[in-house]
Structure formats: C-alpha cells, structure tokens
Amino acid sequence: MYIGIDDTDSRDHYCTTYVGTILQEELEKTYLMDTPKLIRMNPMVKYKTRGNGGVCLRIIEDEKKLNESEIESIKKLVIKTVEKFSDFDCENTNPGIVFLSEENYQKNQKTLLNYYNSVLYDILKVEYSEKILNEIGAEYIKYKKGHGIIGALGAIASKPPFTYELLAYRKSEKWGTEREIDIDSIIKMDTDTFPFTFNNIDGKKSIITPHTPCPVLYGIRGISREILEKAKNTVKSDELDKCQVYITNQGTDVHLRFSKINDIYPDTGVISYGKIVENPKEITGGHVLFKMKDDTGEIDCIAYEPTKEFRNIVRKLNCGDLVGVYGTVREDPFEINIEKLKIVTLQKIYEKNKFCECGGTLKAKGLKSGYKCNICGKRVNYDQIKLNEVKRDIKEGFYEVPPSARRHLSKPLVLYDFDLENIR
C-alpha cells in the first residue's frame, strides 16, 4: 500500500517530512515498511509553500496482504496525523493525501512514469491529477484547494535516480527558536564524508539547516545510509527528537531534459546547447546575461547575483563559444536561469600585433597609410599586420553555481561519477 502526502506545511509552521516521519514511526510498529521517499517536483511552481516536495510511505505486503479493517485503520491514522500537523491557516497550504494499493501501483507503471515526468517538467492542475488518480484506482483526499494531491501522487510515482537525505528533527519546544548547531562540527563532517555527502557547506557557511521555524534541525544529503549515519554522529547540535532517512530525487537533475531552443517554454527545466552570439554583459542587480543560438532559435541565459563567483566564469565567455546550459526557464523575461554550464569548445580569439621588431609601437595613420612605428618609422599595411592568438582565461568543461545557490534537484558535479540509478 502506498501513501502520498504533500503541501501540509507553510513558511512558518510544520514540515511535510515531519508528518511522514511520525507516520513511518507509528506504522512500522505493526507493519513492514519500505524506506520513505521525499520527492521534489518542478521547482518553477509558483504556489509552492517551500521546496515543492511530497512524501511517499509504502507498507510492504510481500507475505501478508492487508485486510479491509487494517486499510481503514491506516487511512484514519494518516488523516488524523495530516490534519494535526497541517497549517490550514496559511492561504498557500492546501494539503492532499493519496492512497494506492500495491496491485494498482503495479498495473499502472506506464501511467505513473508519465505522470512523474509531467510533475517534474510542467505545472499541473488539480483536475488533471484527479483524472489520473481515478484512472489508476487511487483514493484521495483534498483539503482547501487540494494542490497537495499533485505532489502526493508525484511522490508515489517517482522512479530512480535517487539519493538519500537524513533529516534530524528538534523537540517541539524548540520550534521557532534559533537552531543550536556547531559549525566546526559541520565542517569536520563535510571533510570526513565528502563527496559521499554533498551540499553541506558553502565556504565556511552551513547549508544543512533551514531558515524557517519548522521542526527540522538539519538535513544531510548523501549516497548511502552508512555514510549518513557517520555524518550524523559527527555533528554537534541541540538534542534530537527524531531522525529519519529518506530516499529522495534531490541532487539528480531529473527536472532537466534536453531541448532545442525553439522547443523551450516557460516554467520548465532544460539542457540546451548552442553558440554564444552576444557577449556576456552585466545588467541591473549584478546579474550577468548572454545570448545563445542553435539551429532553431536563440535565447537569453542569465547567471543571477546569488551565484556569486560563478558569474566570473560567465563573464569570460565570448561570441562563438559552444556551450551547454542547464537550468530552469523564466516566463518574463523569457530566459534560462543557469544552474550549470558546460563549455564544449572555446572560440579562438585573435588580436593585432601592434609591436614593431625594433620594440616600438605601431600607430594607426589612417585607412590608406596603415601603421607607422613610433620609434624607427617603419610602415606596415593593414593587411600585413600579424595576428596573435589571445590565451583564454577559461577551460572547456563543466562549471556549477555554488552550493548555497543550488536548487534541491540540481546535481552537483561530484555526483557525476556515482551510479544513482540503483538506489532503491
């Protein structure tokens, strides 16, 4: 039996993963439970409360099928818990619950995969999700506008690649207070476990702690349960109330797909290759912008100010460079927000050699007169002047924004050498 939950939290209260953790703890007292999932969806959704993530719990029924009485009891527990830990007073909090049997899950694999792709790439309507839920024989509950059923089904429908996140929760009396966590221990944890854990720090700044007053104390992301347990034991913090490891699609780039420029539309994630046709320029706010073109069209690509030093890489690009841009697409202005950049080939750049053999400098004397040395007086025609190749202060390869500017779903370059398809 699959249970999907989403959109219970707000920027001021609760966390959907906390609901999942409470239910996981309670259900595993009686049933064999799979590892819960925390699944992020299209980050461009405008009505999201925080990270646009739903959770999925699964009761394993390999040996013993659930009877009707057990199913009803489970549903009541889920509903009671969701209603207790949802911020119904927040306008943007619209919880949803989905129940799907193991049989219907197995019978509808293609539909679920298509839905998962849609919830990653597009902005879905509640009505569309209801249509799919009815098609696959799921039961669902909507609260208020019911947006939560979109992500609840998305969490159930999710497929590899995956990573893990260990979420540590603080005691309820600490909610809303400043988190007590030792930064030196986080740096040590990162030193001891990187790259098997990732996105822990940016310089000497911790990025494992939320900025909201929610129950989460910290979250550590990694590629194995064992490394996460080691990482947790290194971190010094407030006393923990609960701790739960989630399987997650964070750090996998599943929100991005290859697209020709002409096929790109707003509020989706793309990987697009083309040649730079307008040199990078800085615009108001400290953002850096360039124009890219392929055989179907052209589009602006932007590195926003929060990407900090990454903008220096973008500034060094030049017309003619062939690049791949990884990122999400804004509607107004229509542009790609760069998350990663792959420089495929660098255009060779030449400059005129204006130095004479005698050591003097060649000065332009007009269109017909060419150049004249300011020391020996030697004249050189425009078409005779030598060209020197300019050494580019940048190399071909991948570049990424700093950890503090990354989306939940963005795949760090350090994970490119790991097989994330076999994490279940």
UniProtKB/TrEMBL annotation:
<comment type="function">
    <text>ATP-dependent agmatine transferase that catalyzes the formation of 2-agmatinylcytidine (agm2C) at the wobble position (C34) of tRNA(Ile2), converting the codon specificity from AUG to AUA.</text>
</comment>
<keyword id="KW-0819">tRNA processing</keyword>
<keyword id="KW-0067">ATP-binding</keyword>
<dbReference type="InterPro" id="IPR055394">
    <property type="entry name" value="Zn_ribbon_TiaS"/>
</dbReference>
<dbReference type="InterPro" id="IPR004365">
    <property type="entry name" value="NA-bd_OB_tRNA"/>
</dbReference>
<feature type="domain" description="OB">
    <location>
        <begin position="282"/>
        <end position="343"/>
    </location>
</feature>
<dbReference type="GO" id="GO:0016879">
    <property type="term" value="F:ligase activity, forming carbon-nitrogen bonds"/>
</dbReference>
<dbReference type="InterPro" id="IPR013696">
    <property type="entry name" value="TiaS_FLD"/>
</dbReference>
<dbReference type="InterPro" id="IPR012340">
    <property type="entry name" value="NA-bd_OB-fold"/>
</dbReference>
<keyword id="KW-0963">Cytoplasm</keyword>
<dbReference type="InterPro" id="IPR024913">
    <property type="entry name" value="tRNA_Ile2__agm2C_synt"/>
</dbReference>
<dbReference type="GO" id="GO:0002101">
    <property type="term" value="P:tRNA wobble cytosine modification"/>
</dbReference>
<comment type="similarity">
    <text>Belongs to the TiaS family.</text>
</comment>
<dbReference type="Pfam" id="PF23783">
    <property type="entry name" value="Zn_ribbon_TiaS"/>
</dbReference>
<protein>
    <recommendedName>
        <fullName>tRNA(Ile2) 2-agmatinylcytidine synthetase TiaS</fullName>
        <ecNumber>6.3.4.22</ecNumber>
    </recommendedName>
</protein>
<dbReference type="GO" id="GO:0005737">
    <property type="term" value="C:cytoplasm"/>
</dbReference>
<feature type="domain" description="TiaS-like TCKD">
    <location>
        <begin position="2"/>
        <end position="144"/>
    </location>
</feature>
<dbReference type="GO" id="GO:0005524">
    <property type="term" value="F:ATP binding"/>
</dbReference>
<dbReference type="InterPro" id="IPR053870">
    <property type="entry name" value="TiaS-like_TCKD"/>
</dbReference>
<feature type="domain" description="TiaS FLD">
    <location>
        <begin position="146"/>
        <end position="255"/>
    </location>
</feature>
<dbReference type="Pfam" id="PF01336">
    <property type="entry name" value="tRNA_anti-codon"/>
</dbReference>
<keyword id="KW-0547">Nucleotide-binding</keyword>
<dbReference type="GO" id="GO:0003676">
    <property type="term" value="F:nucleic acid binding"/>
</dbReference>
<keyword id="KW-0436">Ligase</keyword>
<feature type="domain" description="TiaS C-terminal zinc ribbon">
    <location>
        <begin position="353"/>
        <end position="394"/>
    </location>
</feature>
<dbReference type="Pfam" id="PF22641">
    <property type="entry name" value="TiaS_TCKD"/>
</dbReference>
<dbReference type="Pfam" id="PF08489">
    <property type="entry name" value="TiaS_FLD"/>
</dbReference>
